[in-house]
Fold:
Amino acid sequence: MMSVAAAVAATNQVRWTPTPSRAAKEWFHFCVVTPGLTAFCNLSLSEGADGRVLALARIGDEPRWHGGQRSHAATAIGQRVCVGDSFMEWRGGRYLVRARASGVEIDLELVPLTVPLVAEKVDLAPGWLGWVAIPRLSASGTVRAGGQTFRLDAAPGYHDHNWGEWRWGGGDFAWQWGFALDDRETSVLYSRLTDRARCRTFDTKVSVWRGALLQRVFAGRAVRVDTVGRAPTTGLRRVPAVMELVVPGEGVEAPRSLDVTASLGDDWLALRYQPEALAQVAIANEADFGFTLIDETSGRFEVKGRIDGVDLGYEGRSLFEFVSFE
Amino acid sequence: MASILATRGARSSSSSASSSDGFAALLGESLHALRRDCPEAYREAVRRLDGAPVRVEVGGERVLVRGAGGAHEIDEAAFDPAAATLVTRPDVLVALLDGEARLLDCLLDDRLVLAGPVPVLLRLHEALVWYLRGAVRSAAFPGLLHRLRAWSRGQEGSHAL
Structure:
């Protein structure tokens, strides 16, 4: 049987090649959730040799994120991506990650514990997107934020990798995703691709892993999504910081409460997520003078369900992302 | 006596009175970058300043910015009458660009002073919005912002409006 590391190596390679195409994009997203700390970083590559590092951390119950985003020159050689003095590398069956931005420092080694979920050539009309998600990794290392140092030893982590060609603002699409991990072996990943108005749903999935293996995927009509209200904007920050001045209003896509219910035969799952802290990454559209807004939230979730005759019931903290447009 | 730096279209001249990283020089350089990297935003910004010259005072530097014939002009002498004035400190400008201060708060507590007839202020606001829309799409602006921060640090201690 193929090991988890081999499955990751076979499906999750760095795709980047320098190209004059403004549409080419690729990024690597790593999250960790541990008592007292929620943190993530994103290393992204865009046209030419430009790269960005986003590093955000939420300490305890604080209603706001620390950190921010920085732009640097970027390189991608083999399975190592460097953006300024930050990097991500796949080596020896693990990810080595270093990220620096606006006072947040992330130094982690992350070992995948589940096989990936892979989506290739998702149609963005126009454009396309590739996506690999690994919902559970074992993260060790340090995160520094708000003047504190957090040492992680086998903390739960999450990783996804996106690549493709599209122009921000050029396609009628928006997405949501988030994960919910128990403290042992159950990993749940929610993902949804819709049009901008959220009137048409192109793809909705609730994927459930038990241990290393994917156990069940609820998709399409088997999944119902309900949202209530708007996430609290106390402590709302726009990233990069200059976008506070550039993007008008306080438009937020993240709801006060997200309810996802899924059922297939005797299996069912209910996920409730409620954001507590919100940072909004603003991207200047390439197709027009608007902005793509990515709500990065930290909050609490609750999972209930029954799969293959086994009851599920757990709660915790996690990160969910919601995309909208201004 | 301050000399005059006039920039119109592709014709520009330097001034012996301008530090290469003073506010006026950085503003002029940013407008050239905007015209090169994001001409549509430049056109929209300059069009709104046509016939509405604005006196901008930052860190003891005073310039008159206007649009004329689809291009911008920056007059460092700034003796001509202005339709509106904008006065602030370098550190306030940097705080706004770094998201550490909000425009409305700065206006309410006089860290940033805007004066002029309402229709002109609305045109100035629209011009600023277009300037910023272009700025975040121009590869030149991160470097310009870095230099503005360095200039602002050099101005610390002279914070009177």
About this structure: Chain A touches chain B at residues 50, 71, 237-238, 240-246, 248, 284, 289 (CB under 8 Å). The first helix of chain A runs from residue 4 to 11.
